[in-house]
Amino acid sequence: MPTAIEESDHGHHRNLTQKVARVLDDIRSSNATHIRKLKDLSVLRDSSPVQFFEAFSNALIPLFNFQRRTASAERIVKFVSLFAFTPDAKNSSSSDGFLENFLRFLLLAAEAANKTARYRACQIISEIIMRLPDDAEVSSELWDEVIECMKSRVGDKFPVVRSFAIRALLRFANESENRDIIDLFLQALPLEQNADVRKTIVLSLPPSNETLSTIIDSTLDVSESVRKAAFCVIASKFPLQTLSIKIRTTILQRGLADRSKAVAKECLKLMKDEWLLQCCNRDPIELLKFLDVETYESVGESVMATLLKEGWVSLKDGQTIRQFLASTSDATEGDCNHGIQLMEAEVALYWRMVCKHLQMEASAKGSDAAMTTGAEAAVYAAEASDHNDLLDSVLPAAVSEYVELVNAHIAAGQNYRFASRQLLLLGTMLDFSDASNRKVASGFVQELLHRPLDHEMDDSGIEVVIGDGINLGGERDWAAAVAELAKKVHAAAGEFERVVLGVVEELARPCRERTADCKQWLHCLAVTALLLENINSLGLMRGVAMDPNEILHSLLLAGAKHGHLDVQRAAIRCLGLFGLLERKPSEVLVRQLRCSFVKGPSAVTIMASKALLDLGIWHGLHEVDKAMNCNLSSQLRDHRMAWTPVDLSNGSQDLDIELLDLLYAGLERQDWGPSAEVDENESIQAILGEGLAKILLLSEKFRGVQASTYHLLLAKLIILYFCSESTELQRLKQCLSVFFEHYPSLSVNHKKCISKAFMPVMRSLWPGINGNATGSTIMVSNMRKRAVQASRFMLQMMKVPLYAKETAPDESDGESLDNQADPSLDFESGEEGLAIRIAVEVASFHAKKTAAGKSYLSAVCRILVLLQFRASEQEAIKLVRQLLNRVSESVAAEKDLLKELRQMAERLKLIDGHPDQKLSSDQANQILGRLELEVNLEEDDTMEVPATPAVQSTRPGRARRRVRVEEESSSADELTPTSVVPTNPAVMSTRSQRASKTAALTKMTAKQTVKIDENDENDDDDSGSEVTSEDDSDAFD
């Protein structure tokens, strides 16, 4: 019996719990009562310091069982967190003791088995830590316990628990002694699957060089909220001056082009509020100086376009381009040239983008005025007039002044090359309708076209051309700017071609007379390339200074045979451009390109390969071959798989094979010599691989005789994609990744091509078969893994659905897709065809007894069992059923694989309309003939796959012992029937350890096998349901 004192204490405790519960209930409805209720709760704590904590904990327990994140529950959490560290003015030791006791109580809840308890505990701990004042007195030992507990909760099963645990550690992550917390965040971020948790981690990372790279990577996160958080963190924690130029441009490039408007808006806020206003004092030119626009011009253009669109750029009074034309007496030496002040790169880009924006706005408003009437049209017309007036006030007053400004920058040298190009692009906005202005501009264009390539002297006294050597001015952008200005000045029909051809004829005169040096050749070919790139037909060149045929023979072909490497490259490039403009490629042009591809150095071969690929894609492979006017052979087409490598070092072999064979041989060749003149990211293999991928992608347009060879090209690209050496060809791998993503979905024929390429890829990648190289155990293991990865990759491509235009049924036909004679249902393009190919490969494989052969067959059979069959393909199903028996014999040593094959056979039997009826030999041969396969099918081949055989002893024993074993293991024989696979006589004298162990275990556990399996299955089901249970998980997501 309890005493009166105990009953009194129990009653007091119950009353105190009820009072605390009433306080918690009162604060659920509004935050306005929190301050008053904090005082009430403090009074209760002062009245009974000893019993208050227990009463408070009991009153709070229902919150730890409440899963939903409602507003009332969040108010309770906020209130409890505030009360936990609210000091008691009268008794500070009482409040400090309560905080420590409450934290220990929460630590116990954070380790509870109940997910809701862990969630609420981590939530309250994070709130307390985030709001706790710096002068709060908590023991270091307790903080260590809190940190360790929250670190363990970062790996919790439920995302909401992980999120609040990370939030709780945020305050400690900023301290230098807690380096392990930052490491934990950096390790967890790339592995985290939940977007909200990734966002919390990104927001929790402190500013440092190590965390910056991780935050920058998060700007490419798949989740919009994570990307937005990354830009928010960059804006708040990383000043502009602390970031490198590369990182600044990367941030703006990704953010301004982001597909999400919310993310782009966050990047705009970063650029405007943090960078433009605070760091650059509202000056866009200062912001451009932080971005190195000479290297990252596209980023500078994007920034200026955004600033102008948002209205954040305002022209000050007197701020025009004309201010650079005025004479400045105080200009420093080098900054003034004949009274002209030179522009910096950022200033030149700024003015070009401003003028372009004004011109576009004026054009848009003028179009709007033309499309409307009345007062609205008048408003639009007035706005267009204002923009045109402002543009006129910004641009130079006369064309002569513009020409003088550009010439001053060109004369200043390479340091002002970027500014000069910006001014050339600015010239396209001038008005050349006046005859005098057009005459001045035409003379300026002539000067630009006649201007020789810049050069310098090396240490040996040899002149070296500055730039790429194939474009006017040494760079593609400069040539494009000159071409745009020339087309604007000479806008009349045929005038541009006539003017440029006149320059070409003048520059080609010493080349035709064989008196030109290397620089003159390069200059002439650069102007020729500029012309060929900016016209649509060779007919526009007829009847002027030089006939197209004359340009081809006297200039381009002669340049291709020149002794200088750069001249050859430039001439081959012009030949490729010339061939694209021809109605049909000419014989001499194609022969020269093929000859340069085979015999030229690597720099020339790269240019020739680009030209041949462009011609093949533009005119068609067959047309390019017809241009040779001779019978060309094709090993790819004639011999199918019996490919004999073409020796490209032998010049006599290049002219009698088709273009596709020639390009394939170049892809196979490994001894292309290095060249220092070409881009380090370019290689012949990468260019050929990218070009052949384009041909395969457009193969529906090239349905000629080459179509039968496309699977070999695809196989080679897959091998190149997965081979270890291709890690150096990052650009090619990126290109192929995009290619493989779209290729299988474009056409039914592409599916057939993938199916035909499967076995060649596996034979080429698997070590130890077909003469493939091997190596150490680790090397062989890696090679096998790579081959398995490629096989699963091709299987995935086979399963990718076709795009809608390929699979959409005819609207006029009301039948279902299964009943239509749609080509997509052909077994050749489906998984059935691939299954037949794999089954025939396994059944006819010869090296079955070698270790490499066994592993190879096992790998392809594991792909076979993953294939799905359609009930409409009855003949293919029956053929595979007939072949599965032979397949099972080839992999009989692997019981698990044999079991999967038997299950596959059972699935096929269920969808077989007539499971007991076999295919006739004619039907089977017809299917095999369509797949271009050969296999001998016998009449007595069974359509049933034997059950998984019991492993039999291969060691001969005495008859008495064999009989006794058979009698004792009769029950085991019922479960595992005798194997139908013939015993290998070569190993009859040995008994494997696996066979001995299996036989012994079979005798010991034969009568218990079924029972144990049932228990295991039940256990697995229970454990699986417990582990994967996601009940009420929506409340946390």
From TrEMBL:
Residues 1014-1037 have a biased composition (Acidic residues). Residues 940-1037 are annotated as: Disordered. The keyword Cell cycle applies. The keyword Cell division applies. It is found in: Chromosome. Its main location: nucleus. Residues 523-869 form the Nuclear condensin complex subunit 3 C-terminal domain. Residues 976-996 have a biased composition (Polar residues). Keywords: Cell cycle, Cell division, Chromosome, Coiled coil, DNA condensation, Mitosis. SUPFAM superfamilies: ARM repeat. GO terms for biological process: cell division; mitotic chromosome condensation. PANTHER family: CONDENSIN COMPLEX SUBUNIT 3, CONDENSIN COMPLEX SUBUNIT 3-RELATED. Belongs to the CND3 (condensin subunit 3) family. This is Condensin complex subunit 3. It comes from Olea europaea subsp. europaea.
